[in-house]
Structures are given as C-alpha cells and as structure tokens.
Specification:
The protein is α/β, with parallel strands linked by helices and 149 residues long. Helices cover 56% and strands 10% of the residues. It is built from eight helices and four strands; from the N terminus they run H-E-H-H-E-H-H-E-H-H-E-H. It has a four-stranded parallel beta sheet. Helix 2 packs across helix 3, helix 4 packs antiparallel against helix 5 and helix 6 crosses helix 7. The longest helix is centred in the middle third of the chain and has 14 residues. The radius of gyration is 21 Å and the shape is flat.
C-alpha cells in the first residue's frame, strides 16, 4: 500500500514590493540636476526618487541642456558634463506635453514662470507629488495640490 501523499502547496513567487508599485512623482529640473551633476542636494534627491515612476513635462530636456551649458561655462570638464547627459538619457522619465492654456493660467495665478507652471500643471493632472528644490514652486504646489482634494 502506498503512503498518502501530501496535497500540493500553493506557491506564489513575487518580485519585491518596489517593483510592484511605483507611485508617480513629477520631478523638476532642480531635483534631476542635483542627481545628474552631483550637487550638494544629490543624496536627498536620490532618496526621494528611489522607487518612484518619474514624470516631467517635455521641457525638462531643454532645461537639462541649459544646465549642462552653464556647467561648461563654469569650467566643468566636458567629459563630466557628457557623462551627466548620458545618465539623463538613461533615466526612465515619462515625458508629457503640457496643456498650454492651463499652464499660463497657473503661471498667472501663482506668479510662476511658464516653465515652473508646466511642472505644477503635470502634478495636478497626474494627482502626483511634485519634487523640487525651488521654494516658490514648492509653495505653489503645496497650495494648488492641496486644493485638489
């Protein structure tokens, strides 16, 4: 007589939680530049970006290029700037076209540049937090995103 076999056990293999849920985060140029160009706020920026799905308006590409030009003008070695731009190209950032009318409205309402208003618009559109080292934009985001509830 054969021994009784044990019933099979259900096994579920899952990736670590960080791969299952990556909450959205709108990231502006100040935060991304801190990481790419290893600025003093780099560690704080990296901590905020880790495990997040990054989003930005398409203008971030132009802003990063502008930062690269400033770094070169300040005497940064060209290979270091090129490495930072290569890192930018390798980042997974979902780019969005801003609603220009809404962007202008937000810029006027909060006395922001049109560029900053694009980030604020996107954060509101996605109902996602906005990461910035720009105090004026950060305060506007706190007010505007807080009103969405």
């Amino acid at each position: 007589m054969r021994g009784k076999s044990k019933p099979p056990v259900l096994m579920v293999a899952e990736p670590p939680a960080i791969y299952l849920a990556r909450p959205a985060l709108v990231v502006d140029c100040s935060v991304l530049s801190a990481v790419l160009f290893e600025e003093s706020m780099r560690d704080e920026a990296l901590q905020r970006l880790t495990g997040r799905a990054l989003h930005a308006p398409t203008l971030i590409e132009h802003e990063i290029a502008s930062v690269a030009m400033k770094k070169l003008a300040q005497g940064w070695p060209a290979p270091s700037v090129q490495a930072a731009l290569a890192d930018f190209a390798n980042h997974t950032i979902e780019l969005h076209h801003a609603d220009v009318l809404a962007q202008v409205e937000l810029a006027r309402r909060y006395k922001l540049s049109a560029y900053d208003a694009a980030y604020l618009w996107l954060a509101a559109e996605l109902k996602a937090p906005l990461a910035t080292f720009d105090a004026k934009l950060g305060k506007a985001a706190q007010r505007h995103l807080g009103d969405l509830e």
